Structures are given as structure tokens and as C-alpha cells.
Amino acid sequence: MAxxxxxxxxxxxxxxxxxxxxxxxNKAAQKPDLFNGFSKTYRKKDEDGEELPxxxxxxxxxxxxxxxxxxxxxxxxxxxTARKDWTNCVAKADVVVDGKTLIASAPVSFLLFMEKQLTxxxxxxxxxxxxxxxxxxxxxxxSGLYRTEPTETHRTRKMQKPIxxxxxxxxxxxQTQLITEDVIAGWWVLTRQSGAMPKPEKQKLQDxxxxxxxxxxxxxxxxxxxxxxxxxxxxxxxFGYLLGS
Length: 245
Known about the structure:
- The protein is of the alpha+beta class.
- It has 3 domains: about 1-90 and about 230-245; about 90-145 and about 200-225, no CATH class; about 150-190, no CATH class.
- It is built from 5 helices and 9 strands.
- The strands form 4 sheets. The chain has a 3-stranded antiparallel sheet, with no helix packed on it. Strands 1-2 form a two-stranded antiparallel ribbon.
- A hairpin with a 2-residue loop joins β3 and β4.
- α1 packs antiparallel against α2, α2 runs antiparallel to α5 and α3 (about 110-125) runs antiparallel to α4.
- The longest helix has 26 residues, at about 5-30.
- The protein is elongated.
């Protein structure tokens, strides 16, 4: 009695061989010349006539041979697939994480599905941005965002004012010049907001996903160790009906 994982291993080889054979048969079926042949002999008119050798072309394929070859390839493939699928109906295992059963009696097909979804989710989580560690973030329950404490910076504007180069004397007026200087015009109050997640929280989520993926793989391996269940012979009756044999 084979294990399910042994049937899966066998199926890969049979599938590859069957598909290869069917591909070649399909190519041949599209070349009518391979199914046609002839034989030709020459009969001279009189004794003095020229002798010519016979000519001929052998038929390389017959429709019957092609169909019988397809039947052999597909019968093996259908039967081994039936063995796998019938056993998959009863091959189940629990997904257990940290001693707790998260999914009970999961079939192999569902475990494969879940592994794919979690792998995709792992990629999504890996792409999420994290909070800038250079800032001090606080959770804001009202907005669901993270925010920093307000910081204040001043804004300046240019102003001109006169300066006295030479003071006035009884003989000369004062000499002045306009200069430009930056003066504070106001203050910016900046509060940063972010919808990113803290780095430790992201790492924790990634670790949980990884642990669950590993548990699903272990469950799949356990399910694949189920003994083969009795499956009907599918290929012979199906192709017997199709080909009338």
C-alpha cells in the first residue's frame, strides 16, 4: 500500500511521460503524409525494354496505432491521478501552532491553497513602511494614526532699515544707507502624522505568518503520509467506451 506522497511522486513522472507522448502523437496527427504510403512496380513493354526498380513509401502511422498509444499514455495518467485524488479525499491533518489547533482536519488541497495565500500576505507585509525611528511617535486613538509632539520653527521675512554712515555736521547732512535684514515674522508649529506601523509590530506579524506557514507545511507532510485508499480503475472503462474496445 503506497503513501500519498509516493503516489504524488509517481504521478509527476507519469504525467511528464504522458504529456510528452501526447505531444508527439499530436504532431504526427497533423502530418497526413506520415499516414500515407504507396508501392509501385514497373513492367517493361517487351524483352528489350529497360528494367526499373520498384518504388515505394512506407506508412509510418495508422490512426489505430496513434489512438492505442494515446490510450496507453492516458490510462496510466488517469489511474495514478485517480489514486491521488481518491486518497486526497481522506488525507487530512491538523494545523497546530504553539500547541493550539488553528485548523482541524484540513485536506491537502486546502493546505496548499492556504500556503499560497499566506506567502502572498507575507510579501504584502514585507512591503509595508515602518515608522521613522528618528522620531518619537505616539498613537492617536482619535485618528488611528501615529503622531509626533509639535515642534516649532520660526519664519523670517526681509525688512529694510536705514543706518547712519556719517552723522550730520553743521556743514553736511547725515549720510544714511538702507540695508536688508531677516526678521522673525511668525512661527510654524509642525506635527508629523503617519499611517505606517512600528518596526517591532511588523516583525512580530512577519514571525507569526512564518510560523503559520511552517505549521501548514508540516500538516501537509503529515497528510501526505496517509495510506493510499482504494480507487477504481478509471482508464480501462473510459477508453474502452471511447474506442469501442
